[in-house]
Amino acid sequence: MHDNTITLAASATAAGLEAHDPTPASDSGRAAALTARFEAIPFTPWHRRARIVMGSATFLDAFDALSLAFVLPILIKLWELSPAQIGWMIAASYIGQLLGALLFSRLAESFGRVPTAAAATALMSVMGLACALTGNFQMLFLCRLIQGIGVGGEMPVAATYISELLRAKGRGRYFMLYEMIFPVGLMITGQVGTLLVPILGWTSLFFIGGIPGLVIAYLLYRLPESPRWLIGQQRLDEAEAIIRQAEASARKAKLDYQQEPQSAPEAPAPAQVARQPRSRWSELLSPRFRVRTLIAWVLWASSFFVANSLNNWMPTLYHTVYKLELGSALRAASMTNVAQVAILLVCAFCIDRIGRRTWAIVSFLVGAALLSALAAGGAGQLWSLIVLATLAYGVVGSINAVLYLYTPEIYPTRMRAIGTGLATSWLRIASAVGPTTVGYMVGTQGINSVFMMFAIVAAIGAVAAIGMIETGGRRLEETSS
C-alpha cells in the first residue's frame, strides 16, 4: 500500500496539487501511520453504530422523498390538480434536492461530514412537519421545495461518510448492505402509505417522517467524525482519538487483525496525508478527472430519470389511468420497491466479485428491454404493466445504489463529498425533469410513449456504463493510477 501511495504522491506533486504544502514531514509521517491504522481495522460494533445512526437518517430521507407519491392520489381529487401540476409537485422536491446536494456537499468539505448530515436531516424533518400543515397546492409546493434541500443534502454526505469509514476489503458488500436502507425506506413508505393514508389521511405520512427525524438529527450530531476527513484537515489528535475508539471496539469484539505500527513510517506519503487543499468545483472537469466525472453524471441522470419517474408516477397512473381503487393502486405501486430490495440483496453479495461496471451495464440493458416491452404493448393490460414495470424499476433502481458506492471511490478524500454531491445533483435534475415530462406526455402522447422514452434513456445509461472505471472497491488514494 505504501508503494502505491508514494506513486500517487509523485503524480500529485507533478500536477501542482501539493506544490505549496506547508505540512511538516513529522506530521505527514504521523498522518500516514494513522491512515494505515484505520485502514487495518475490520468492521466492528463501532462501525455498526455509525452505520445504524446514519442509516436511520437515510431511511427517513427515503421516506420523505417518496411520501408525496402516496398522497398525490388523494390530493388530485381534493385540490383538483391537473397532470401538469402533478408533475410540478413531484419536481418541487427534486429541485430542492439539487440545491441541497450542491450546498451540503460543499459544507461537508469545510465543516465535516457529521454536522453537515445532522443539519440536512434536521431541515428535512422540520419541513416535513410543515408539509403536513399546508392546505393548498402553492404552500405544499414551497414546503416540498425547501424540504428537498435537506433530503438532497443528506444522501451524498451520508454516502461519503460511510464509504470513508470502511476499508477496501469487502467495502462493496458492507456499503451495499448499508445502501439497502434507502430502498427499504421506500418499500416501507409504500406499505405504510397503503395502510394509513386511506384511514388517517394524507398528512399522516408527513408527521411520521418529520417527528423521528428530529431525534435522528441529534444522534447524528453525536457520531464520531470521519477520521479520513480529520487527517486531511491535519486535525491529527482528534483523528487518533477516534481511531483508538475503533481499535478498542475491535479488541473488545475479539476480532483478529494486524494493527499497523503507530510510529511514523520512514517514507511518508505527502499526497495522501498532507493537509488537503481546498477543492474547487472546476477540478472535477480538470484533465485528470474529466472523463470519469462526465460518465458518472450521465449514469446518475439516466438511472434516476427512469427510476424516480416510475416511482413517483405509478400510484397515480394505477389510480387514474387504469382505474384501480385507491388501496389497490397503492399496493400495486408499493411492489416496485419490494422488487428493488430483493435485487439489491443479490447485488450486495456479488458486487465485489462481478464489479460495479458489469452490474451497471447488465442492469441498464435488462431495464431497457423491459421498458421496450411495455412500450410495444405490454402497458395495454394491467397485469403485464404491473409485472414489467415492477421488474424494470427493481433492476434500474439497483443501479442507483451502486452509484452511491462507486462515485466516492473515483475521487480523492479532499474532493469526495464535492464529487459525490455534484454527481447526485444530476439525479435531482433528472428526477425533476422526468416526472414533469411524464405529466405532459400522459395527456398528449399516451402511456406507451412514456415507456419508450424510459427505454431510450436506459439504453443511453448502458452506453455510458461501458466507460466506467472498475475500482474493485479501492478508492483513488489506494490505487497507483
Count all strands and give the number.
Answer: 0
Low-confidence stretches: 1-23, 261-275
Mean pLDDT: 81
Straight-line distance between termini: 13 Å
Radius of gyration: 23 Å
Measured by DSSP, the beta-strand proportion falls in under 5%
Overall outline? globular
Helix content: over 70%
Return the structural class: mainly alpha
Reading the helices and strands in chain order gives HHHHHHHHHHHHHHHHHH
Largest sheet: none
Q: In DSSP terms, counting alpha (H) and pi (I) runs of 4 or more, how many helices?
A: 18
How would you describe this protein?
- The chain is an all-alpha fold.
- It has helices at about 1-15, 25-40, 45-80, 85-110, 115-130, 135-165, 170-180, 180-200, 205-220, 225-230, 235-250, 270-275, 290-320, 325-355, 355-375, 380-410, 415-445, 445-465.
- Helices cover about 75% and strands about 0% of the residues.
- Residues about 1-25 and about 260-275 have low confidence and may be disordered.
- Helix 3 (about 45-80) packs antiparallel against helix 9 (about 205-220), helix 7 (about 170-180) packs antiparallel against helix 14 and helix 13 (about 290-320) packs antiparallel against helix 14.
Describe, in short, the structure shown.
The chain is mostly helical and 481 residues long.
Q: Layout of SSEs?
A:
Elements (H helix, E strand, L loop, with lengths): L1 H13 L10 H16 L4 H34 L4 H29 L1 H20 L4 H29 L5 H9 L1 H20 L2 H19 L5 H6 L3 H17 L17 H4 L16 H31 L5 H29 L1 H20 L6 H28 L6 H29 L2 H19 L16
Helix pairs in contact: 2-11, 3-5, 3-6, 3-8, 3-9, 3-13, 4-5, 4-6, 4-17, 5-6, 5-9, 6-16, 6-17, 7-14, 7-16, 8-14, 13-14, 13-16, 13-17, 13-18, 14-15, 14-16, 15-16, 15-18, 16-17
